Amino acid sequence: MAQTVNLSTYELLVKPIIDSPAPPNRTVIQGYFLTIANPTFSNLEIQLSFTALTPFFNSSTFAAFWDVDGTNNELVPIVDFPCLRTYRFKLPALDTGLFLFLPDVRNGRVVASRSTEIRGYVRLSIPSASRIPSDNSMRTLLISAQQRGTFLPQGNINAPAVGDFDQLSYSLPLANGGSEVTLETDINSNSISSLTLIPRQEIFDAIEKEPSLLSSISSDQFSQQISKLNPDEQRQMLNILLEKFDVKQA
Prior knowledge:
Blueprint: E1 4-16, E2 27-37, E3 44-52, E4 62-67, E5 73-75, E6 79-81, E7 84-91, E8 96-103, H1 108-113, E9 116-131, E10 138-151, E11 166-172, E12 180-184, E13 186-192, H2 200-209, H3 213-217, H4 221-227, H5 231-244
Parallel strand pairs: 9-13
Antiparallel strand pairs: 1-2, 1-9, 2-8, 2-10, 3-7, 3-9, 4-5, 4-8, 6-7, 10-11, 10-12
């Protein structure tokens, strides 16, 4: 069964920095940003659950996005309760993505009302993962969490067209005290990771120049074992690995 852990707190804001119509009354818009790296050869399904109690999510409008290739793909929650929102998305092997949870400022009322203030905590799980050689049910992620925001130019309700847009960014502590998280997951027995890699000869040439290459690419147990072999042995083992992954040659 997939394991779930507490990850961090979060706070989403669209609020004036002081409760007064007189300057300075700039509005701050703040969101939650989570960078997730997958240092394994396994394709993963990631789940994030956000809890908010006082106030509930229906106190304002919010949006979530997942970005791996430079495109912010908007997510639809698989659970959408007043106090709980849950999102799922894919993270390919050896890849890194950015999750964004934000006040939905596309809705003009959100900025004009300047009344969004919600906070809570995030829980993380890996519901499923593709099989890999020397498989087990544990998968590792590297994670960093941040609050990022923008201060709008001076303005009572609507910010002027021209002015200073200042930024804020600060890291959030993770519940486990470190950025590496290892969780138990459910293995998808009907699939195996399919990686698109550079041509084999380039991989072999790189291995000959630096035998420890694979140990720097992934902490996966299988690649760590290969990295301890000499280049000729690595060639043989890597051929087996690439055949198992059904790599398409360039």
